[in-house]
Design goal:
Elements: H1 2-61, H2 63-66, H3 77-82, H4 93-96, H5 101-110, H6 130-143, H7 152-160, H8 166-176, H9 178-181, H10 192-199, H11 209-212, H12 217-226, H13 246-260
The protein binds heme C (2 copies).
The site of one heme C (HEC) has 25 residues, from helix 2, helix 5 and helix 6.
């Protein structure tokens, strides 16, 4: 009995000592973590600023061929396709993962002709400064993480809008969406039967957790803003960007999250 007690005391003493040591370690580790986090935040703010400048340049100089989101679908792309030249899809990670940032910089600066590619990719070193080309590299590096079919302007509006409020979303939903999606969002509104009969499409059941748990907020937002047709879904899902503000559409996304009982992602 006494032995057990003594053992317990020894263990307690050890534990206290160990705690003191780990506390001291934690304090210095916490300080180091805080410094690292501050550095990371500063770095990411710097990169974010470069990406933003790069996007601006990209929309001015590159999007007519490569498309706003780098999907290779700019206005001029169709013309090249007739001559059997494909404008590179800069949002394709299989392709872009093979290029280092240095190679990327070289293609942009020197053009396709000097880098074993089509000379329809122009050289930019004479028109843009090295800093501008660096900014473009930072932006192009991000393209693969952006949804290929969401235009950058839509994504920018989404990011700039305040966080959505589910209750506001509900009020808008009752006003604009129940005709098709039904008062509880189950896809059974008064207009749904007609859509099924005439167009063989069904409004999505917005309470379907399995479906919505894998969808990103920005994708839901984009579908609401630009309509189903923009994403090869049913065109009967209308575009709302002319009717609703970005903040309102974000609240609708928040409402869809609440009725589908899924987490934001
Ligand atoms: C006049 C049309 C046009 C413009 C403008 C243009 N590009 Fe290109 N770009 C192309 C074509 C075509 C290719 C494909 C070349 C090939 O694969 O042979 C290409 C290829 C590229 C590649 C190489 C991708 C790879 O996988 O090898 C990069 C990077 C690139 N462009 C970036 C840019 C940037 C950045 C701008 C703007 C500063 C820009 N391009 C402007 C037509 C254009
Ligand atoms: C005229 C009928 C109609 C109206 C009104 C309507 N929708 Fe839809 N909605 C549809 C149809 C049809 C689909 C299914 C599209 C598909 O999957 O091909 C759909 C799909 C959706 C989806 C699923 C998108 C995805 O990624 O699969 C969401 C979210 C959505 N609607 C939200 C809304 C909201 C919010 C409103 C009101 C602002 C609204 N809808 C109004 C018909 C409608």
């Amino acid at each position: 009995m006494i032995r057990t007690l003594r053992l317990a005391m020894v263990i307690a003493a050890f534990a206290t000592a160990a705690m003191a040591v780990s506390c001291a370690q934690q304090t210095s580790k916490a300080a180091a973590d805080a410094a690292a986090a501050a550095q990371a935040a500063a770095d990411s703010a710097k990169t974010a600023a470069a990406v933003q400048r790069g996007q601006h340049l990209f929309l001015s100089y590159c999007a007519m061929c490569h498309g706003d989101g780098g999907a290779g679908d700019g206005e001029a792309a169709a013309r090249f396709q007739r001559d059997s030249v494909m404008v590179a899809k800069l949002n394709n990670s299989d392709r872009m993962d093979k290029l280092t940032p240095e190679e990327l910089r070289k293609v942009i600066a020197e053009g396709g002709g000097k880098t074993h590619r089509s000379d329809l990719m122009p050289p930019w070193a004479s028109r843009l400064s090295p800093e501008q080309i660096d900014d473009l590299v930072q932006f192009v590096l991000q393209l693969r993480y952006m949804n290929p079919s969401v235009p950058s302007a839509t994504l920018a509006a989404y990011m700039a809008a305040p966080e959505g409020v589910p209750a506001d979303g509900r009020a808008l939903f009752v006003h604009h969406c129940v005709a098709c999606h039904g008062s509880e969002g189950k896809g059974d509104g008064p207009f749904a039967a007609k859509l099924l009969e005439t167009a063989k499409v069904q409004p999505r059941n917005l309470t379907d957790s399995v479906y919505f748990k894998d969808r990103k907020d920005s994708d839901l937002y984009a579908t609401i803003a630009l309509g189903g047709g923009h994403f090869k879904k049913a065109v009967q899902m209308p575009a709302w960007t002319q009717t609703l503000t970005p903040a309102q559409m974000k609240s609708l996304v928040a409402y869809v999250r609440s009725i589908s009982q899924t987490e934001s992602k």
